[in-house]
Amino acid sequence: MKLDTTGMESAAPVWGSHNELVDEFSAAPSFELPNTTDFDGFQKEAIQMVKPAKGTTTLAFIFKEGVMVAADSRASMGGYISSQSVKKIIEINPYMLGTMAGGAADCQFWHRNLGTKCRLHELANKRRISVTGASKLFANILYSYRGIGLSVGTMIAGWDETGPGLYYVDNEGGRLKGMRFSVGSGSPYAYGVLDNGYRYDMSVEEAAELARRAIYHATFRDGASGGVASVYYVGPNGWKKLSGDDVGELHYRYYPVMPSTVEQEMVEVTGA
Amino acid sequence: MSIFEYNGSALVSMVGKNCFAIASDRRLGVQLQTIATDFQRISKIHDRVFLGLSGLATDAQTLYQRLVFRHKLYQVREERDMKPVTFANLVSALLYEKRFGPYFCQPVIAGLGDEDKPFICTMDSIGAKELAKDFVVAGTASESLYGACESMFKEDMEPEELFETVSQALLSSVDRDCLSGWGGHVYVVTPTEVKERILKGRMD
C-alpha cells in the first residue's frame, strides 16, 4: 500500500545554505501565504480581536508661525476610564513631535523606534532627517505590519530645512501630507471648531487658543476624550509645550455659571 | 457595548436619619457622543416617592409614563398616595410582565414609608427587587458607585451631610465612566421638604 505523504513534507528546503540578499533577486516573485483556513477574512478577524477604539482626540495644524499640536489625555477601555493623565504627544526628538491615537503601547513603542531610526540617520548622514523622511520611515514600518492588528493613528509634526511639516500616518500604511488634521473618536467635533476658526496668518497665542478650544469641545461631546488639553508649538527652534489645562476647569472658564434670577424665595417665618 | 450602555446613566440613592437622597447624572448620549447635558432621570411619583430609571432612555421614559398612569388610577380608586413598598411591588410586577422581551432599565425607588421611615430599593431589568438599608446604585458607573458608597457611607446622617456624601460619591464615580456624568442632580427628601440641587461636575 502506498503511504499518503501529503502533509508530511518538511517545510524547510533541503538543499544548501542561502545568501539572503541574492535569493531575493534571483527567485521568482512570490508572496508568502498565510497558514489559515479563512484566507479572505482572517486579517479582519485579527484586527477586530485587538482593536481598541481609538478613543481620543488629537489635532495638529500648520500656520504662518509653525505647527500647533494638541491632544487630550484620557485612556478608556470600553466604558471605563483607565486614566485621565496619559501623555499623547510624544517627543520624537527636539524638533519633531508625534501624536498618539489607538493602542497606547503600539504608539509609544513605534514612536520611540522612529526616534531611534531618526538619530541613526543623523549619525550616518551628518544632517537631521526631514519630516518627510521620518514620516515615510514610519509609514513603511507600519505597512510591513499591516493586517497583524496594530492600532496607530498618528501625526508627525516637525520643523526641518523646508519649514513646517505635518503628515498623518496610520496602521493601514496610509500617509498623507496636509495642513490640518484631527485623529480619534473626538475628531469630528474638533474639526468643527478647528475648520471654523482657522486662518493661516494667526499669531502663536491665537493658534494655541484655537487648538485648546477645539480639544475642549471634543472632550465635551465625546465620551472617550477628556482630562487635560495639552498644547505644543513647533517652531524653527524646535517644539515647546505651551499649556496643559484641565478641561473641567476650561468649561467653567468658557461658560461660567450665571446665577439665575430667583423666582420665589422661601424665608423662615419667625413667631407664629 | 451592550444595550444597557447605549445611553449611559448613573443613579444612586442613600438612606439617612429620617430622610433619603436620590441622585443621578445628567448626560444623555448615543454611545460615545453626548447629546444632552440636562436629561432628567429622576421623577417624582408623589411627594414621598421618587423613581429613578437608568439604562435605555426610551424604555425609561415609556416605563415612567406607564407607572404614572397606574399610580393615578390607584389614587382615584384608593383616594390616597401609594406607599413606597407598594410602588416597588408594582414596578416589579410591571417589569416581570415583559419577562421575555424586557424593558432595558434598572429602576431605583426611594421613598418615605409609614412613620417617615426611609425606604430604598433597586431592581434588575426583569423585576428582581433588592432592598437595602444603606444605599443602592444603578447604571453604567455602578461598579465605581458601589466602591464609593461603601467607603463614604455612614449610618444616620443628617440631610446636609447626606447631601455632601451622595454628591461626592456620585461625582467621583462618574469621573471614572466615559458614558455618564456631565453634572449631577440630587434630591434630598425629609418629611417636611424636598431639596433639589444641581451639581457642578466635570464636563468631559
Biggest sheet details of chain B: 5 strands, antiparallel
Strand order of the largest sheet of chain A: 10-1-2-11-12
* Count of DSSP H/I helices of chain A: 7
Q: Helix count of chain B?
A: 4
What is the fourth-level CATH superfamily of the domain at 60-83 and 94-254 in chain A?
Aminohydrolase, N-terminal nucleophile (Ntn) domain
Write the layout of secondary structure elements.
The complex is a heterodimer of chains A (272) and B (204).
Chain A: H1 20-26, H2 42-50, E1 58-63, E2 66-71, E3 75-77, E4 80-83, E5 89-93, E6 96-99, H3 104-125, H4 131-144, E7 153-160, E8 163-170, E9 175-177, E10 180-183, H5 187-197, H6 204-221, E11 228-235, E12 238-246, H7 247-254
Antiparallel strand pairs in A: 1-2, 1-10, 2-11, 3-4, 5-6, 6-7, 7-8, 8-9, 11-12
Chain B: E1 10-15, E2 20-25, E3 28-30, E4 33-36, E5 42-46, E6 49-55, H1 57-78, H2 84-97, E7 105-112, E8 118-123, E9 129-132, E10 135-139, H3 142-152, H4 159-174, E11 184-189, E12 194-199
Antiparallel strand pairs in B: 1-2, 1-10, 2-11, 3-4, 5-6, 6-7, 7-8, 8-9, 11-12
Helix pairs in contact in B: 3-4
List keywords for this structure.
heterodimer; A: 272 residues; alpha+beta; Glutamine Phosphoribosylpyrophosphate, subunit 1, domain 1; five-stranded antiparallel β-sheet; 7 helices; 25% strand; B: 204 residues; 31% helix; protease (chain A); threonine-type endopeptidase activity (chain A); threonine protease (chain A)
Account of the 3D structure:
- The complex is a heterodimer of chains A (272) and B (204).
- By secondary structure, chain A is α+β, with helices and mostly antiparallel strands.
- Chain A has a domain at 60-83 and 94-254: Aminohydrolase, N-terminal nucleophile (Ntn) domain (Glutamine Phosphoribosylpyrophosphate, subunit 1, domain 1, 4-Layer Sandwich).
- Chain A contains seven helices and twelve strands.
- Chain A has helices at 20-26, 42-50, 104-125, 131-144, 187-197, 204-221, 247-254, and strands spanning 58-63, 66-71, 75-77, 80-83, 89-93, 96-99, 153-160, 163-170, 175-177, 180-183, 228-235, 238-246.
- In chain A, the strands form three sheets. In chain A, strands 10-1-2-11-12 form a five-stranded antiparallel β-sheet. A five-stranded antiparallel β-sheet of chain A has the order 5-6-7-8-9, covered by helices on one side. Chain A has a two-stranded antiparallel sheet with strand order 3-4.
- In chain A, a hairpin with a 2-residue loop joins strand 3 (75-77) and strand 4 (80-83).
- Chain B is 31% helix and 32% strand.
- In chain B, strand 7 and strand 8 form a beta hairpin.
- Chain B is globular.
- Chains A and B meet through helix 6 and helix 7 of A and loops of B.
- Chain A: This is Proteasome subunit beta.
- Chain A: The active site is at 56 (nucleophile).
